[in-house]
Amino acid sequence: MTLSIEQDLQLRIEQEHLLRRIINSIHQTLDLNDILRATAEEIRSLLRTDRVMLYKFHSDGSGQVIAESIDNNRLPSLLGLNFPADDIPLHARKMFMKARSRSVVNVDTRQIGQSPLRNLVTGEATPGDITYRPVDPCHVEYLTAMGVKSSLVMPIFHQEELWGLLASHHSEPRLVPESEIEAVQMVVDQLSVAIAQSHILAKAQARAQREAVLDRITTLLHSMPNIEFQSALKETVEAFSGTGGRLCIRHHAFSLQNDTVKSLAECLNEENPSIELYTCGWQPVMPEVAKYQHMEQYSVWQERYKFSNSDVWGITDIYQTPELRNLQMAFQPTKIRSIMMIPLQHRQQLLGYLSVFRDEIDTETLWAGQFDPDQRQLYPRLSFEVWRESKKAQACEWTVEDIELAQAIGKQFALFIQQYEIYRQVQAFNANLFQNLFG
């Protein structure tokens, strides 16, 4: 048996052991971060390179190094650092998506080898053979600034979407045989399984948390005749990590004299509004010159919901929402920046409003090198030293999950408020009847 055959056999044995360890780690833990850290360590050990990192894309095309393994500090750590979208531009991300191409770069020879798993035009599977061509000079400068002489990059997918990249970097020139590419590809395929598994678990946990919140709120609202509106409001605000909230419902809307029920708009438009108002946490401050004393009296809400539209309105930034221009002055003395407005409707009837407030936040992002976020990067950066980007008074976006939870909570509030109104009508009717009979 020749030395090369022995080496090849040994490599295959190591690859099999690596894959088995990765699969075992996926089966033994549901923590994706633990799996990613172990994977980076195992792959670097197999390839004997200076740095292996796992990079996750954000929705805007930028990304972050979320796991990393380094050999004796031969290359600097990039763990936790963010990279702008221009570093891996859209056309490169599309190439990863369409061709599922693995790439190998040798800085000294200025060659890039690409091994696509799909035909770029037809989308059909390909053998994955490596073809070489000259590498873009900008990419050479980019890797050189990183201290990298050779790299191996592989795309990671989740449900046919580009989730991130696995990158192996070495500070010296290094040949990457196809056998290594295939071994790492098997690991990447297992990572996709782990990512899918993690998403399923996260959804299940979020669903359980949502159901627990709804159960707690339902219990508080179910305590007829003394419905715990104040406690239910507090529970709702906490569910959204809010800093304040309001529950505004109509009061004494039913008239025994003419057997009519006033609408919420009628209750709000009276000189002395016929409403019940519960508040929690920070509140808007109505100036003395304000037209109304309650934010719910302003026409913006009536205009939005006058056609029985029961959609939750997640307002990310009060000051970037033209419809709220007459209300903005009430929020200026506060740090409130975002509003979740939940219309409480039951059978096409608007019973009230439930609102949750969030304060503005300060953010800090750690970037791999300084750049101007407002300008397209025309040249590769010369340094990857940590750059802290601090932003003050930022608005916090409402997520799709926030909106869905708000809709579910709104239905519970509306249902019990309707029952509460019926209960009060019956109580008023009985009291009136008693008065007529025995008064």
From TrEMBL:
Residues 31-190 form the Phytochrome chromophore attachment site domain. One of its GO terms (biological process) is detection of visible light. It comes from the Bacteria. InterPro entries: GAF, GAF-like_dom_sf, Phyto_chromo_attachment, Phytochrome, Phytochrome_cen-reg. The keyword Ribosomal protein does not apply. GO terms for molecular function: photoreceptor activity. Pfam families: GAF, PHY. Keywords: Chromophore, Photoreceptor protein, Receptor, Sensory transduction. This is GAF domain-containing protein. It comes from Tolypothrix bouteillei VB521301.
